Amino acid sequence: MPMFSEITARFQTARTEVRQLLLQYLLPWLVNIELVDPNVPPANPLSYIQYYAAEAGRSGRREGLGSAEATEMVLNNLFYITAKFSDKHPKEIEELWSTLCACWPNNLKVIIRYLIIVSGMAPNELLPYAKRVVLYLARSRPERLLDEMMTELQTVETLNCLIERTETPPFYRLTSMRKATSGHSDGPCTGSQDATGRTGELAPVEKGTIHTKRHSGEDPAKARQGIN
Q1: Of the residues 19, 66, 184, 194, which has the fewest C-beta atoms closer than 10 A?
Q2: Distance separating alpha carbons of residues 184 and 170, to the nearest angstrom
Q3: Residue 228: which H helix or E strand, with range?
């Protein structure tokens, strides 16, 4: 992840032609990233066998890297880059999302869930970019995307929680909701929990920013650049 972090950190200040090269440099790293979401059941071994058997030129399970922290960084950064630069580099950015969703069985499911969460935080500002990402996914894996979307539509209370924006990565926190009992709801559970299971107090609403290891220890107010 240090290489991915370094490339995305340089992306914001790079010239247009250099940005195009940086986007191409990211592709080999995305191939080895298996997205991990603690709220999404992991794929079973049979899923890997069936998935790679259906993919031309692929056989068996490959080795790669995957963690909740890496997933947060990759999705936050790619979505930020999409919002800021997809008009200038549409082909390269589409290829990034296409590569990410095609390499591992659960990646597409995790991406969809991430888009649902960020779109719910600021639909007026972020929904157009989420729709653009879904379009990229549809061009890459139309049948699998349709299957996943239909599953989400048939799921009752897909996100049975409150979504709170935070000023530190992953820039949102999910607060679980207790199911209604005795004809009324008990309201939200005491405390809050983010996507990685950490608990803490809710932070003030802040705009999104690029998410890199290099800046993770800095004051967010100094490193933050909002999504236009």
Answers
A1: 184
A2: 32
A3: none
Which residue type is seen at 34?
E
Query: In sequence order, what DSSP letters do the residues of 163-217 get, joined into one string?
Result: EEE-SSTTSEEEEEBPPPBTTB---BPSS-EETTS-B-PPPPP-------GGGTT
On whether the CB atoms of residues 140 and 98 are closer than 8 A, the answer is yes
Q: Residue 204: CB partners within 8 Å, gap ≥ 6?
A: 167
Within 8 A by CB and 6+ apart from 32, the residues are: 62, 63, 64, 65, 103
What is the residue-wise DSSP string for 58-74?
Answer: --SPPP-B--HHHHHHH
Rounded Cα–Cα distance for residues 169 and 162 (Å): 17
Q: Is 228 exposed, middle or buried (0-12, 13-18, 19+ CB in 10 A)?
A: exposed
Please give the model's pTM, rounded to 2 decimal places.
Answer: 0.65
159-213 pLDDT per residue, tens: 556 667 777 666 666 666 554 433 444 444 434 444 444 444 434 434 445 555 5
Task: Give CA–CA dist 158/100, Å, rounded.
Answer: 23
Asked whether 202 and 167 are in contact (CB, 8 A), the reply is: no
